[in-house]
Amino acid sequence: MTSAPNLSRLRHFVQQLAALLALQPDEPAILAQGAALLAELVAHDDWLPDDYAQPHPQYYQQFLLHADSLARFSVVSFVWGPGQTTPIHDHTVWGLIGMLRGAEHAQPYAKNEAGHWAPSGDAVTLLPGQVEAVSPRVGDVHRVSNAFADKTSISIHVYGANIGAVQRHVYLEDGTIKNFVSGYTNPNLPNIWNLA
Ligand code: FE
Fold first, then answer.
1. Tens digit of each residue's pLDDT (9 = 90 or more) over 121-174
2. What pTM was estimated for this model as a whole?
3. Could you count the other beta carbons within 10 Å of the beta carbon of residue 3?
4. Which of 51, 101, 110, 177 is the most buried (most CB within 10 A)?
């Protein structure tokens, strides 16, 4: 690392979001005001420490950056290696995705008449500074991919829970649903948030 990261941006975001959630707003207000806060955070790509920006050759990485002490929210850096993609999955809680570096494609999915999960509408391409929302209310099932086959992309995700411990689902194209708990990638932390 050539210079100390500007963690004041992340600290400011965490404090502003905690203050917002303390008011117990409804989900539309959380998504609207939280998106504005996250857009401010990802407007500058000068603060994410390098340790939380490292791709893995095989797997996309999910580094926990902050877990709220009351588990009202968590902040994660998603690091996409070239060409990496998620399975079709849900979140079960509200989420905000802010693009920090590179770009990603998010394809929404919906259940078709045969009961299979199929692409629904156009994929959204997120560019640096842009923010997207998910939730069971606004659309919760998608598949996300690095838009680049030759470089790393990074997005900052915020969820309305300690997402690494949330019971959620992967959807296979044949209609099969599998339970999953994502955990976090962070290898060297005494991470009290890694388990339910
Ligand atoms: Fe997702």
1. 999 999 999 999 999 999 999 999 999 999 999 999 999 999 999 999 999 877
2. 0.92
3. 6
4. 101
CA–CA separation, 37 and 13 (whole Å): 6
Evaluated on CA atoms 127, 25, 165, 168, the torsion sign reads: negative
> Which tokens go with 141?
């099932």
Question: pLDDT, tens digit, for every residue of 26-70?
Answer: 999 999 999 999 999 999 999 999 999 999 999 999 999 999 999
In terms of CATH, what superfamily is 8-181? Jelly Rolls (2.60.120.10)
196 C-alpha vs ligand 1 centroid, how far in Å? 19
Cα-to-centroid distance, 43 and ligand 1 (Å): 21
What distance in angstroms lies between residue 135's CA and the mean position of ligand 1's atoms? 10
Q: What is the 3-state secondary structure (H, E, C) of 34-49?
A: HHHHHHHHHCCCCCCC
Compute, in angstroms, the gap from residue 47 CA to the centroid of ligand 1. 23
Coil, strand or helix: which one is 146? strand
How far is the C-alpha of 20 from the C-alpha of 25, rounded, in Å? 7
